[in-house]
TrEMBL record:
Region called Disordered, residue ranges: 19-50
Keyword field contains Lipid metabolism: no
Official protein name in the record: protein-glutamine gamma-glutamyltransferase
Every Transglutaminase-like domain range: 309-402
Organism (species): Hippocampus comes (Tiger tail seahorse)
Known cofactor(s): Ca(2+)
InterPro entries: Ig-like_fold, Ig_E-set, Papain-like_cys_pep_sf, Transglutaminase, Transglutaminase-like, Transglutaminase-like_sf, Transglutaminase_animal, Transglutaminase_AS
Keywords of this entry: Acyltransferase, Calcium, Metal-binding, Transferase
Keyword flag Cell inner membrane: no
Length: 714
């Protein structure tokens, strides 16, 4: 349980932040009080009547933000807030009612303020001096005017306070502070002048407006889809995203710059440096928090952080990516989650992965600093890069998972995806690290009896085996590997690492080293590992192998090693030198099930050698439990029951089961714990739970934007 912090003990911070857009809104320190002077020396009056009486003076009676007109046009009607939400670079309208009809001699302006010291953005009317934001009178009827205002395409993103100021014979008459006229201004991917402009409408619908999605895990051969509720339109999420920027004291003036915004965001989603949103945990002990596998979306995480000011426990890469995606889409930046299978972690920046093995074939974990994750999730954002050659604009990699520091903070990107593909690793930001994640060579090393490091084998195809994201407007995976790397052997030059230590020797060819059935492992079933040996020699040869079976974390780190088996393959002298010999190594379910814990990844490492030499190669695959089936009828304005059924299809009982369910704007994250579930008897179904939550009807209840069922997770 995380204790709720007081206002003076929010994380490691205290006090009121002068750069705050939200905190400043409740206590406006700008000139505006009666008779207070502006920087230019002009006196301001809050609704102070002209000495000649109200009949001859002009004053403001009401300001209507016209949410019903503006928000559909700005595609922001899904935000669950009572305030106006608009996108920069696009006109919005306000209806201002005055005390009398406005004449051509009347002069007034609309002022928009954010933070404590940023310049006022204003739209002027009836004066020759033009404000920073263009304004026009759209319609006039009696004593009210419909005014059109267009924020600049590079306007600061955040929450603005609004005033109407009338130029009188005595000075400036400004309206009093009215929180109801506050408005949020977001990035605008529909505006070609905005730095986050996206060129087609389907992409805008998916990468900005879709509030649910899928994150892919497992392996390229066995894609596992985890539904994720981004929930960027849920009540409180927009304020939470702005609070994240405020709490980090990000300067207000930088919040209109998309590059600075996403780079800062990648550091703020993790708690490594600045008490950000999420605490990373890659162990098997999640006491004091929530296991990463139990999160079904970003909403609870962001709301908990905004309400307590303390980092939320716990997250792993897909949780960081999911929450960061919510942050980006909420502010209007096109974003998507990318899953990279066999993702390398280059610890020393030499653009290669060095895996060291002992003479007995086991991994030398003490001296191996690089690693290969079964998969890793990051984000892509779509934006212009004025700091790079124009062709390198478009999709950019950003990563909130804390792995390595960049300019002193745990963050990564933005880095151009095209630059990564073309090997242009000299561009900002963090391109070498990302290039190594998708396109580095794997060097298998060993030490001889004299302690010398020998390069046994170089694998050029293991890393970055496949990159996937959710398809536009469809619940299917979309492979984007070709946007990150050229096919192997196409002759395109890319950066290479320095020559590996020692000579690379030639060994008999291991034709196949894979799981059977190919790429499929069903949890609770025995696993077959197939090894096929092929030699170009026309003489008989014998290859010996030591196959080690282990449970690993998805980051490639060893959790439990449970089996080692020696095998021997003899290829007789035959005329067909391409003929292969095959051996199958069997692993029983009962051997690995008791070692799994929170992990569902099995790693098989083989050490192969002839009389004179050895060769190491590594393969991994994963099995996973199927997600529970969810059924229910979505009905706006009516109470609704959601039935969640889980059937134990294994031959053994399950213990300590937690079910979690969440629906965007319909249902907050709910969990229920069960101690025991019997195995499924032949021909019978066992329902674990049913009709366990009710969504109350209300006028604010809205179905998810894509019409999908709530996501559930076990």
């Amino acid at each position: 349980m995380i204790d709720r912090a007081t206002d003076c003990q929010r994380g490691a911070r205290s006090g009121v932040y002068p750069a705050s857009g939200l905190l400043q809104a409740s206590s406006d320190k700008r000139p505006g009080s009666k008779f207070e002077k502006t920087e230019s020396g002009i006196q301001l009056f809050d609704d102070d009547p002209d000495p000649r009486g109200w009949r001859e003076s002009l004053r403001v009676v009401e300001v209507n933000t016209c949410r019903d007109i503006n928000m559909p046009k700005h595609r922001t009607q899904a935000y669950d807030t009572e305030y106006l939400v608009i996108r920069r670079g696009q006109e919005f309208v306000l209806r201002v009612t005055f005390s009398r009809p406005v004449t051509p001699r009347d002069k007034f302006k609309l002022e928009f303020l954010i933070g404590a010291s940023e310049p006022v953005s204003e739209a002027t009317f009836g004066t020759r001096r033009r404000g920073r934001w263009p304004g026009r009178i759209v319609e006039s009827q009696g004593s009210w005017l419909l005014l059109g205002i267009t924020p600049q395409a590079d306007t600061i993103v955040g929450k603005f306070r609004m005033y109407v100021t009338i130029v009188t014979t005595r000075g400036l008459q400004r309206t009093k502070r009215d929180p109801d006229t506050d408005c949020y201004i977001l990035f605008n991917c529909w505006n070609s002048e905005d730095s986050v402009y996206y060129p087609d409408d389907e992409g805008r619908q998916e990468y900005v407006l879709s509030d649910v999605g899928a994150i892919y895990m497992g392996s390229k051969e066995t894609l596992l889809s985890r539904d994720w509720v981004f929930g960027q339109f849920d009540r409180g999420i927009l304020d939470a995203c702005i609070y994240i920027l405020d709490a980090s004291r990000m300067p207000i003036r930088n919040r209109g710059d998309a590059i600075k915004m996403v780079r800062k965001g990648s550091a703020l989603i993790n708690s490594q440096d600045e008490d950000g949103v999420l605490v990373g945990n890659w162990s098997e002990n999640f006491s004091g928090g929530t296991a990463p596998t139990l999160w079904t979306g970003s909403v609870n995480i962001l709301l908990q952080y905004a309400n307590t000011g303390s980092p939320v426990r716990y997250g792993q890469c897909w949780v960081f990516a999911g929450v960061f995606n919510t942050f980006l889409r909420c502010l209007g930046i096109p974003a998507r989650v990318i899953s990279n299978f066999n993702s390398a972690h280059d610890n020393n920046g030499n653009l290669k992965i060095e895996l060291i093995f002992k003479s007995d074939g086991s991994a030398d974990e003490r001296n191996t600093h690089d690693s290969i994750w079964n998969y890793h999730c990051w984000n892509e954002v779509y934006m212009k890069r004025p700091d790079l050659p124009p062709r390198l604009s478009g999709w950019q990699v950003v990563d909130a998972t804390p792995q390595e520091t960049s300019d002193g903070l745990y963050r990564c990107g933005p880095a151009s995806v095209l630059a990564i593909k073309e090997g242009q690793v000299g561009h900002s930001y963090d391109a070498p690290f990302i290039f190594a994640e998708v396109n580095s060579d794997v060097h298998y090393l060993t030490r001889d009896k004299y302690g010398n490091v020998i390069s046994v084998y170089v694998d050029k195809t293991l890393v970055g085996r496949g990159l996937f994201t959710k398809h536009i407007l469809a619940d299917t995976p979309d492979e984007v590997t070709s946007t990150y790397k050229h096919p192997e052997g196409d002759g395109v030059a890319v950066p290479s690492a320095a020559t590996s230590p020692g000579p690379t020797q030639t060994y008999p060819r291991i034709k196949a080293f894979h799981l059977c059935p190919e790429g499929q492992v069903e949890l609770g079933k025995d696993v077959d590992l197939v090894v096929e040996f092929q030699s170009k020699s026309d003489t008989a040869q014998t290859v010996k192998a030591l196959v080690t079976c282990a449970v690993i974390f998805y980051t490639g780190v060893l959790s439990n090693r449970f089996k080692s088996e020696a095998v021997e393959i003899t290829k007789a002298q035959v005329d067909d030198s391409l003929a292969a010999e095959r051996v199958v190594v069997k692993t029983r379910a009962q051997d690995y099930l008791k070692k799994l814990g929170f992990q569902r990844f099995l790693c098989f490492t083989g050490r192969f050698w002839t009389r004179r030499s050895g060769r190491a190669k590594r393969e991994a695959d994963a099995g996973a439990l199927a997600a529970p089936q969810v059924s229910g009828i979505q009905a706006v304005g009516q109470d609704m029951f959601v039935n969640v059924s889980f059937v134990n299809t294994f031959t053994f009982p399950l213990h300590n089961i937690t079910l979690a369910i969440e629906g965007p704007r319909t249902m907050t994250n709910r969990k229920r714990f069960y101690k025991y579930a019997r195995p499924l008897p032949s021909g019978r179904a066992c329902v674990l739970t049913r009709a366990w939550v009710c969504v109350s009807a209300s006028s604010n209840l809205k179905p998810p934007s894509t019409g999908r069922n709530p996501s559930s997770r076990k």
